[in-house]
């Protein structure tokens, strides 16, 4: 399977073409899972000539590590949208390793810790999305359906709600 | 003092206490490989000046907490990342190469803050990414989470 993952900067954008054979030695393996390197490979011809790079032009390709570093700081809403940026971004954002990295960053970020509460007519319950719990100044209400709901449990930033 | 040389052949002298914030250079010094000029083939002088400015300011970071200069440092950091998009990328690449953890954190966070509300088109343009998704694939992703593509805050400008 061939992919086109081009990341770069500079006035002159270049495509680096190579076949899946060539790219296979650029695949990272993290926790046994294969991750694609974010740059190069198009679905065009894979002749050696096309791999020639003009060394004089300033063109920086971000390593996957840096792309991941930046993306792991974004809220879920942005990430959902950026799945549309390219097949590589879509694969990266959907990858389990990235999800764990994103979650770990959120856990360590005091600003992203939230206390999830449900307040309905018969009672009140609350769960911590992460610990330690701290006082939240900006309360954000769930854009939930109009029905009553209760929170069953929370784990790793996910909440299970039941509606009735 | 440690001498650094950019890829456009400009030399800079930096205090050892400042430059060892770079793990790469710290290791070189410890291994005795930093006796003469250290060439940095991946970094141009413009970017290196920015990096050195950061290193010099953060030289006494440990002390800052004791002397109550943290706010000053925070203000410096905010000003520091107030640079052009391309310049920021150069600094990120340099920080990554030199392995300066704090600078990497600062600049990647700034990049994330700038990308956060951008439209898909703007992100592609900012990062020079070619779009290989077919219209159908793109529509499928949008249909999966239409809420991520709507909203007044979504910014289509490139900067």
UniProtKB/TrEMBL annotation, chain A:
Residues 62-102 form the F-box domain. Transmembrane segments: none annotated. CDD domains: F-box_AtFBW1-like (cd22157). PANTHER family: BNAA05G37150D PROTEIN-RELATED (PTHR31111), F-BOX ASSOCIATED DOMAIN-CONTAINING PROTEIN (PTHR31111:SF138). This is F-box domain-containing protein. It comes from Capsicum annuum.
TrEMBL record, chain B:
It holds the Pfam family Skp1_POZ. Residues 102-148 form the SKP1 component dimerisation domain. GO terms for cellular component: cytoplasm; nucleus. It comes from the Eukaryota. Coiled coil: none annotated. Keywords: Ubl conjugation pathway. Part of a SCF (SKP1-cullin-F-box) protein ligase complex. PANTHER family: SKP1 (PTHR11165). This is SKP1-like protein. It comes from Capsicum annuum (Capsicum pepper).
């Amino acid at each position: 399977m061939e992919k086109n993952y081009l990341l770069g900067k500079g006035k002159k954008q270049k495509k680096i073409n190579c076949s899946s054979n060539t790219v296979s030695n650029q695949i990272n393996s993290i926790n046994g899972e294969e991750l694609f390197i974010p740059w190069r490979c198009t679905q065009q011809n894979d002749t050696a000539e096309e791999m020639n790079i003009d060394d004089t032009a300033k063109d920086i390709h971000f390593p996957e590590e840096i792309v991941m570093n930046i993306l792991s700081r974004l809220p879920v809403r942005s990430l959902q949208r950026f799945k549309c940026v390219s097949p590589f971004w879509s694969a990266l954002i959907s990858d389990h390793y990235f999800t764990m990295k994103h979650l770990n960053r959120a856990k360590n970020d005091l600003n992203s810790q939230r206390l999830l509460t449900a307040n309905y007519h018969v009672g009140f319950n609350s769960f911590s999305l992460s610990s330690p719990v701290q006082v939240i100044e900006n309360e954000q209400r769930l854009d939930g359906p109009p029905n009553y709901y209760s929170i069953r449990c929370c784990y790793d930033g996910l909440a299970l709600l039941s509606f009735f | 003092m440690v001498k650094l040389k950019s890829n456009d052949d400009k030399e800079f002298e930096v205090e050892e206490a400042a430059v060892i914030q770079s793990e790469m250079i710290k290791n070189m010094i410890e291994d005795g490989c930093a006796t003469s000029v250290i060439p940095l083939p991946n970094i141009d002088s413009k970017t290196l000046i920015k990096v050195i400015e950061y290193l010099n300011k953060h030289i006494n970071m440990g002390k800052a907490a004791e002397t109550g200069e943290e706010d000053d440092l925070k203000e410096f950091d905010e000003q520091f990342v107030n640079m052009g998009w391309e310049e920021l990328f150069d600094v990120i690449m340099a920080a990554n190469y030199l392995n300066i953890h704090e600078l990497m954190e600062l600049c990647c966070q700034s990049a994330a803050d700038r990308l956060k509300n951008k439209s898909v088109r703007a992100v592609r343009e900012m990062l020079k990414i070619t779009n290989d998704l077919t219209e159908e694939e793109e529509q499928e992703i949008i249909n999966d989470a239409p809420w991520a593509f709507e909203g007044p805050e979504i910014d289509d400008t490139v900067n």
